[in-house]
């Protein structure tokens, strides 16, 4: 085992002193069920002396993962309900997911696709399946955007990425290519001039949606990786999951959103955790989430505000679940709450403010 290659088993985590030996047996049972991987960059961020470390909580297995609730499901957001061909999820008319790989550099303990990713997951589509996926995109002129996800698409080699980009370059109705990735944070050394050139080679607008959940993840190496992407004209947005014990307090959430904006990454989505098997210890209630998100308004810049979303189980897509600040009253009047929670009538009565 070498930390340079990353940690891929319960024994690796113990050898790296990230978990005490007495926890090995419990963690090994989880690792038999769900993939484990921690990159050197993330291992270096973990404080083994802190039993509540928010980085460890995201990547180090917990025996709580073996407790599966009746409402949890293997396909929590209904990918399979909308998959016309292998590797494609087509839920909304104008955009598709293209899942070219089911491997990740890290395995997040709360992952919504935890039954699909990793060595025991769906695997990599065969060349024939990939041909069929591109044929599907080419045949559907309403597809304006292709979202590469997985797994983490940026684990692919520069050569493989350039091949995928060349195929997208040949489909004129696709105008936007988006990557959903954790690589700039968890393996920032992969972001180099060769990778940037491969992404840009499709000749389309390229967006990178970075998944990060705690402000400590935006290390100087991660910020340098994002600078390289943004300076080269790649637009970055963020995605975070609201996670109990990781970022479910106003200070941490505010610091995370500010860290994104400082790195020129526009906060995009804050996801309510999906009903993935064995993840109930990460979920807070929607009311708690709404209160946290409402608390960001007024506290931090408008640039820092994410949209709080829920992926509706069964494949019905995402919904904005932030608490509404406006309530209809009688006869075309409304009550609007300001950022402190005080209610105001709209339109105002008489000369009052
Ligand atoms: C989340 C998701 C998208 C992207 O949704 P946006 O709101 O455009 O970010 C597209 N397709 C599927 C199937 C998704 O789950
Ligand atoms: S990087 Fe994304 S797909 Fe991979 S384990 Fe984490 S949440 Fe799941």
UniProtKB/TrEMBL annotation:
Per the entry, which co-factors are needed? Answer: pyridoxal 5'-phosphate; [4Fe-4S] cluster
* One Pfam family per UniProt: Radical_SAM
Question: Locate the Radical SAM core domain: which residues?
Answer: 90-303
Q: Which residues form the signal peptide?
A: none
Q: List keywords of the entry alphabetically.
A: 4Fe-4S, Iron, Iron-sulfur, Isomerase, Metal-binding, Pyridoxal phosphate, S-adenosyl-L-methionine
Q: Which domain of life is it from?
A: Bacteria
Name the CDD domains for this protein.
Radical_SAM
The cross-references to InterPro entries, in alphabetical order and at most eight, read: Aldolase_TIM, Lys_aminomutase-rel, Lys_aminomutase/Glu_NH3_mut, rSAM, rSAM_sf
Q: Which PANTHER family match?
A: L-LYSINE 2,3-AMINOMUTASE (PTHR30538:SF1), LYSINE 2,3-AMINOMUTASE-RELATED (PTHR30538)
Family stated for the protein in its record: Belongs to the radical SAM superfamily. KamA family.
Q: What is this protein called?
A: Lysine 2,3-aminomutase
- The organism named in the record is Devosia nitrariae
Species lineage, top-down?
Bacteria, Pseudomonadati, Pseudomonadota, Alphaproteobacteria, Hyphomicrobiales
